[in-house]
Amino acid sequence: MSKLVIVFFSGYGHTRKIAEAAAADTDALLVEIDANGDLNDEQWQQLHAARGIIFAAPTYMGNVPWQFKKFADATSALWAKRAWQDKVFGGFTNSASFNGDKQVTLIWMQTLAAQHGGIWVSLGLLPANTKQADRNDINTLGGSIGALIQTPADASVDEIPHGDIETVKIYVARISEIINKLD
Ligand SMILES: Cc1cc2nc3c(=O)[nH]c(=O)nc-3n(C[C@H](O)[C@H](O)[C@H](O)COP(=O)(O)O)c2cc1C
Q: pLDDT value at position 142?
């Protein structure tokens, strides 16, 4: 069982591509919420066994897609049993606009982690916000709660800005390192 799981939903493949890139550089396991908002028993078991859980979803209409919310609501039985108490959590979200209300999604993910009694890991990176900054730089969207990715609405899954993917990779590695320090 992997210590770190990225549980994600992706309607059109962009968030999946980002999660795959992040998982490739760490030992994180990917758990994909299906189009009906469901996980199978094995996937629930993988979440249960993980030391850390990273929430990942695109921002749709200013928050997570309904499939991710269905997953979150399905964790309420675990919430009641404090089953995820003291797990380590993080989150990232991807959307078409530079802002696009992604912060709402991240704060909601952080709230979900807090409801479970989790330990939330911040992004821990300075923003790249000078005149020289471009979209190959780290954290050009200036996140701090978690990682932000902006994929232009007409971009394929192979055209996600490089710097944003690198930002997610660094963040996932940070969460992995923190888990190792805690244990
Ligand atoms: C139903 C729907 C709602 C969306 N709402 C937003 C939004 O609120 N803000 C934004 O910036 N982009 C929004 N988008 C754009 C998606 O976030 C963007 O295309 C993202 O890359 C999709 O990721 P995915 O391929 O993993 O589904 C929306 C897209 C859809 C389909």
A: 98
What spacing in Å lies between the alpha carbon of 94 and ligand 1's midpoint? 8
**pLDDT tens sequence across 153-177:** 999 999 999 999 999 999 999 999 9
149/98 Cα distance (integer angstroms) = 8
pLDDT grade for 79, boundaries at 50, 70 and 90:
very high
**Maximum Cα–Cα distance across the chain:** 50
Output the ligand 1 site: residues, CB below 6 A.
10-15, 58-62, 94-97, 100-101, 151, 153
Name the residue at shortest CA distance from atom 25 of ligand 1.
Answer: 12
Homologous superfamily, domain 4-182: Flavodoxin domain (3.40.50.360)
